[in-house]
Amino acid sequence: MTIETDVLIIGGGIAGASAAYHLTALGHRVVLLERGDVASGASGVNAGQIDSVGWGHAPDLQAHLTAGSVEIFERVQLDHGEDIEFRRSGALQAIRTGEEYEFTRDRVAALRARGHTVELLTIREARAIEPALSPALLGAMFSPLRSQADPVKATRAFARLAEREGARVLTQHEVKALSPRSTSGYAASTSRGEVAAGAVVIAAGAWSASIGAMLDLDVPIVPVRGQMWATAPAPPCLFQTMSAAESALAWHRDRGGAPPDLTHRDGLRVTRHLYGRQRRDGELIFGGDREVCGWDTTPDPSGIETNRGHVIELLPFLSALPVARTWAGLMPFSLDGRPLIGRVPGRDDLWIVSGLASSGFGRGPAAGKLLADYLHSGVPAPVLADADPIGRIRERGAVSTPRIVDHADERAARG
């Protein structure tokens, strides 16, 4: 038996679940297919940090994805009654060196001039709101609008909201083949049946290129391994989400190749990256590495130790808390560093929302909504020009040279 629907969404991560929710709310019949469980990919194994420095005076794509997602997360918890452990906690980005201080000072000034909500704190001011910070630090950038939530609970909340609006969310349905129908639309063969749809949305995260290949398309997304570690639950001791200025400065100087903004190139470390928070259950979780390793999701112990050492420089008390568990996941990085959100060129009724890199959880809700609004109206939001797949997704075999775009606003807002 074949399931018929208006829109088929492939991928049960947060961007796909958000797109499903917003499309059904707009009146579309939607089927979402997920090969595992909802939130079984990167959307469920990340740190749960939600970046935002506010809309600013002239909101660009980064502002729409971040500030817009914070507002959507708030609605999911406060208006729809879904306990996703959302909290607008604020965030601190720690400064260790003089070079980092000068960079952060200029970055804060530039962001504030564009109307964003950030502050440069002395270490004394930072320790007043985060007492465990090392007094040896030179200060911190404070972003009071940054937030946090449980990634699994939040992603599954979007899927439940989509189902309440009438969507069908089918887990354990791996797409084996996808092809255009002779009349219009697409046919998908899954491990558990067939689905026919008028339109298809590729929202498969790191696997988006594999779905595109079924339609003879080169989707410029590669899997990047991110890895994390956690302590056993501890009493409340970390109140903001945390990061460090080291990688922000390194990527400001040199974003690297295709994809950009990695911690490793050709197997060698080029910078340390750090993020983390304390979960509601008391676990302290941290991560940071971004490395191209194919489809390997085995944590690298040396990378875990490097990250833990970095964390201890900022939060010395963690030296007394051993690592209780480690894990890794695959993030969808586009070759040019920009998201892919919109209509796939040259293909009728084929859409994509992917390439959200390491910030997919915090940017996915708004990315899904922007895609849904575009598909529904046929008119893209102007800010989607920077995520347009045109010239980036090509027929397989076509010559394509990755274009690295230096977006100052996005780089400045990135944690």
Strand-helix topology:
Blueprint: E1 2-10, H1 14-25, E2 30-33, H2 42-45, E3 49-50, H3 61-79, E4 91-95, H4 98-113, E5 119-121, H5 123-129, E6 139-143, E7 147-148, H6 151-164, E8 168-170, E9 175-180, E10 186-190, E11 193-202, H7 208-213, E12 217-218, E13 221-230, E14 241-244, H8 245-253, E15 264-265, E16 268-269, E17 275-278, E18 284-291, H9 301-314, E19 325-334, E20 340-343, E21 350-354, H10 360-377, E22 394-395, H11 408-413
Helix pairs in contact: 1-6, 1-10, 3-10
Notes on the structure:
Strands 1, 2, 8, 9, 10, 11, 20 and 21 form an eight-stranded mixed beta sheet that branches. The protein has an eight-stranded mixed beta sheet with strand order 5-6-4-14-17-18-13-19, with helices on both faces. A two-stranded antiparallel sheet has the order 3-7. The chain is 30% helix and 26% strand. Strand 17 and strand 18 form a beta hairpin. The chain is an alpha+beta fold and 415 residues long. The protein starts with a strand and ends with a helix.
Average pLDDT reading: 95
**Which class best fits the helix and strand makeup?**
alpha+beta
Q: Regarding quaternary structure, how should these chains be classified?
A: single chain
**Could you tell me how far the N terminus lies from the C terminus, measured between alpha carbons in angstroms?**
47 Å
Radius of gyration: 21 Å
Total strands: the figure is 22
Poorly predicted ranges (pLDDT <50, ≥5 residues)? 400-415
- Shape annotation: globular
What percentage of residues falls in helices of 4 or more residues?
25-40%
Q: Determine the strand fraction and express it as a percent band.
A: 25-35%
Total helices: the number is: 11
Major sheet attributes = 8 strands, mixed
